[in-house]
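Next comes this protein:
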Amino acid sequence: MPKRKYKIAVVQLNLNDVAENNLKKCISWVKDAANKGAEVILLPELYSSHYFCQSEDVDNFALAEPLYSTSFIAFSELAKELGVVIIVPFFEKRMAGIYHNSAYIIDTDGTEAGLYRKMHIPDDPHFYEKFYFTPGDLGFQAIETKKGKIGTLICWDQWYPEAARITALKGAEVLFYPTAIGWHPKEKEQYGENQYGAWMNVMKGHAVANGVFVAAANRIGLEKYIEGTEGIQFWGASFIAGPQGEILAQASHDKEEILIAEVDLDLQENVRQNWPFFRDRRIDAFGDITKRAIDK
């Protein structure tokens, strides 16, 4: 029988460094999370480098790695050693000219339980991801692991209720969101509180609407590496929420931290029995959701 309770962790880090150092740092923090009892551990988006999408620069493609190379080898060995599931977000080189923003889901025996490729790709000031990433083609997934059935979505995906809904309908007990989001420093005073609040509220809404646990791992720190710009101040605030949107664990805006919370499937079932949103969905009336716009 699957476990009815298991512990998950999100790791919030400053990753403004070279790949080798970021890898060593993440391995150390994953070990710490496992020692604290975590059984499924999430790292932030694009863990191995600074957030290079602040500019459109072909030299940054050198940061990508082929499937099953450096990141997979290192974290596969670590997952097997620790007996944990690790979600590893990385910059995937699929072939010349095709790159993805991806995440391995590595099972407790070191095997690949699943691979997710980011579906929604933003193109905003200093978040120029469309230059680098081909949209994902593996769809939304609920992935069976030896700890639980989980779904992984990545950063910009977190704004889309359809992504959360489909992943939950496929059976995911937890939605994991590796993230790299922050403030433009000159906008923070005027817009910062609302931007951060919207980010957190939309994911809490996914938890409520789908009766699932939600875990988001963000990075921290000012990443300013392009001359003449203010960079991005990543706002941290990683969190884990329960199926009623309740905050189970919350990180600061500026410290490296591990958050741990328990996934309780009996609680999830009870919430869904009392708030039967899946039962009452009018799927017969939702056909227009697949249109870009509903024209008169």
User: Anything to note?
Assistant: The longest helix spans residues 188-210. The two ends are 52 Å apart (CA to CA).
